[in-house]
Here is the input.
Amino acid sequence: MSNGVAHRAYTASIERESQVITLYRDDVQLGVEIHFRDVIALLPPTAELEASQGKEHTLLRMGKYEAGENGSNQNGKYMTTECLKVVDPPELLLDHFLLPRLPEHLAIPSGENDACNLHVVVSIKSGICEAEVFFEDVVQVAFHTLGLSGRHYEVHKTSSEQSIKEFVNNILGPRAGLGIAQTALLLSGDGGIVDIINVLHPFRSTKFLQPTIGLLAMGTGNALANSAGLNRDSTRGLRSFLRGHPQNLPTFAASFSPNSQYLVDEGRRTEPLHTRENPHGVVHGAVVSSWALHASLVADSDTVEYRKFGPQRFQMAAKELLDPSDGSKAHIYSGRVTLFKKNGDGQEYTETLDRTKHMYIVATLVSNLEEKLSISPRSKPLDGQLRLVHFGALPSDEIMRILGLAFQGGKHVLEASVGYDSIEGMRIELHEDESHWRRICIDGKIIQVGKGGWVVIRKEPYGVMNLVMEDRS
Here is the structure.
């Protein structure tokens, strides 16, 4: 690693309870205070520096600029990477943040003809369009300080909704199928992950080697990043990518009845789901599968106008669905839901919900759908357990009250009217005449089920990618 940045060195002290680092020079406090949440990594001294100047480490941290200055964006503020020299850092700082060497998933060798096997994928339109600036002002600077120049990695910036799929189809998938080790750092929301998972599946073979994926949270809900602990600091997951280790990402598969189709372009167009490459109409996911209110609010809020409001767009769409502005009543969803469960002996059995009228059907592999929305409080990072949260027809104000409890540490699952089950999967038969109410959400992707149709969702026994995350034990 190369950490030769031209700054005078500081000494540091730490306030453990407040998790604040204070910097000094010549025993004079400089008023530079750094919170733990803003630290990206602490780099060790190079051999040359250690011989001549003592144990002078490099502290990488997030810095902020106001709008209109270098690195500003439409959100009013933006962040960049600052490099600070720290002499003889305290033990606590070393314990929490030291990156002793370049991690294996970043020190990945190039392939034939110097083809890069380390990639950075920048999803330009994710969330509120922060990814490109974050890459240029934060990731690039951090990589340079780590000794990674442009020749060590390849950058892919999206130009359409198909860009990530094309990257996987043309590069990541074929090389994984040949057993070539690869790492891709994805600046995206959950949608980028589901694209990678689905396009990787056909490349599975006896030689298949799961690529390693790092995720920097740039979406709206960022369910996977929030649930895996990647988004618990201001680095958006960059700290976890540098200090973490690849772990298998559990997934599920959703099989759809014939005549089902993708809804795209804000629901204005459809694309075929059952194709020659996907004859059984299977969609893979790693976060959530849902029907009824949740799927409807995700679909309705997926517009340019709604996205301006960030995560608040989901609550706005929910309010319109539960209290329509045209004065009509909230829709109650009709269908039959059958659960697949296992008993104490590991034998699978089926259980059909004792109602055909529903308002909320959400099966998830993660704990949080948003930073503070704890939809499944018993879920642990990458534990592979699919859990179902569900309830039937209730008054709109009661539904809003229950959903509000999900933002209070997942207290909604304690309500008598809410079901909360560990499942192996489920089958939903939709008894809806109007296509608007036959929408299914798979990790943010919307599939419209054909009339009289169904969807079957099941945990998968294997994964196709590893996610880099820190050990939280």
User: Anything to note?
Assistant: The longest strand covers residues 56-66. Residues 21 and 34 are 5 Å apart (CA to CA). Residues 131-145 form the longest helix (15 residues).
